[in-house]
Predict the 3D structure of the following.
Amino acid sequence: MRIGVDSGGTFTDCVYLQDGALRVKKVFSTPRDPSRAIVRAVEEVAAAGAPVEILHGTTVGTNTLLERKGARVVFVTTAGFEDTLAIGRQARPRLYDLLVSPPEPLVPSERRLGVVERTAPDGSILLRLSARELARLVKAAAVAGPESMAISLLFSFANPVHERAIAGALERLGVPISASHRVLPEFREYERASTVVVNAYLAPRMAGYLGGLERWAKVRAAGGAVYVMQSSGGITRAGVAAREPVRTVLSGPAGGVVGAHAVARRAGIAPIISFDMGGTSTDVSLVEDALRITGESVVAGFPVGVPMLDIHTVGAGGGSLARIDAGGALRVGPESAGADPGPICYGRGELPTVTDANLLLGRLDPEFFLGGEMRLDLERTRRFFRQFLKRAGTGFSRSGPAGVQALTEGIVRVANASMEKAIRVISIERGHDPREFTLVSFGGAGGLHACALAAALRIPRVLVPQHPGALSALGILLSDAVKDYSRTVMLQPGDTARLARHFAELERRGQQDLAREGLLTPAGRPPRRPPCSVIRSADLRYAGQGYEFNVPWESAAQAVEAFHRAHQLRYGYSDSSRPVEIVNVRVRLTIPQPSVWAARERAQRRVGSSRAAPVMQARGCHPIFRRDRLRPGDRVSGPAVITEYSATTFLPPGFAARVDKRQNLVIADFGLRNAE
């Protein structure tokens, strides 16, 4: 039994196939030990003793970085470059803010060790690492008391011989070792060092967490296995993720983008903007023909250079807390009520959240939350909102129903403004017109705000897939096994022989790693699975530029032309007469996983109709429809609420939804321009 699991801030979502039908199970997350919620969910949906394959999107790495609760790391680099982590790039995130400062390095100065050696940019050895220097380094590292080691020498991507020698010598300390020639063999010493340190910082905790989950899966049933979602949009074995946890820091959001792309493609819709609003944050991503991957991400203030889906995150979710700042303005997020205590309406929280505001606005059915498994406390929510108003001062001085109404509407408006800005960042600010896209809305709270965002940005269509509150888990279940490899080469497009050799070496390394992990046989074929596919790409720039674009690689001429087009789209100009250089080459190896679509379609095949769907309930401010009662061809006009097990969708006046043949809700705006 294959189970996709997305461990979120408020709920842990499971998606699985049962009797050919796609099923969803949501349980409250257990932030102190996320595996407890996963074990509970799997025990509820899988028969005792049955083999299970858990495909897991985890937030452990992200939370460890945000909370600064990782391992005690000792950092080893070339002598004279010990302060690279502190100096960074000297780039100010806010140009005119005199008080802004980068986050403190994960490794303090006393645990940053320099080693006397030097490698040239072309890989030649200028100063060889001596046995005496190596012994001195090992002794100094032992005195520092490391829980994990990070090694990043200058130009080791061109020749890793010294890094290998250091890693071999440090093995006697018995702690995890992260070396840059394995984690990120690319230029830019600060980004490479930062990535390796993040990997070392997360390794012990991720190894313990994933190791425990994997042992439980094997003990529970023979053949049990755990896979982990990578930030690049593919799964890998838990043991590999434990060694390179830096590749999982956007694990859960990546599953959502993969799921959104998959359901939109099956519906014949492209391009899309994915909009994932969960309990603690909102993740947005722009997808045209294929998933967009970047190597220039920043997580918790630290550059991370491994491949990641291009996702922009803001602290606005269903559990985002409302507050009044010192100037009397209403603020929403980024602080969240999380799973404990949660929103007021869940029965334990006492501070207003976005979910509470939606409940008071009549956009949530208090009797049918989580399919009726949980009842929302409407009266308790009103009481705590009134108490909040009393403490709020003159900004919200109105008492009674009018004051509560103003507060709830204000909370939703502020949250919408934050999410609208996030969508503008990935679209308008990068040269894309959102009016040419479809907004694919998911997450437990996405459907409550999608129409308002579409109206504000003039996005003509919204698609809400089935089980939107668990689409990230579905995306993880749909994800292929993926391995990414890269290397800095600094070559001209005409160096075809050397480029071909670099690509071939990366592909050979990938085949060997996949075979070692049991995904491929030594002959190069995956056991009982479709053949492995290989995608080549390269990072190109105009000679002398500081940053580059990643483009597909079929030939040098094709890649150069694609680079010119990308440069024109992003910056508004290109120059085909300027020389182009190839900075990095990249290879992605993919092994397709079993598809859930065929079995799902057999179980859900129905004949559509054009009838109007009946109103199922008439409680509160808006008519309420049960989504499981809707059939392909049904239409619902706003104002209306469409409720289901994993999420709720709100249709403002002027919007209408139809059910397509894939059971998606396709929503269009028929004239409304000021939806809330």
Q: What stands out?
A: Residues 605-612, 672-676 have pLDDT under 50 and may be disordered. Residues 72-175 form one domain. The chain is about 35% helix and 25% strand.
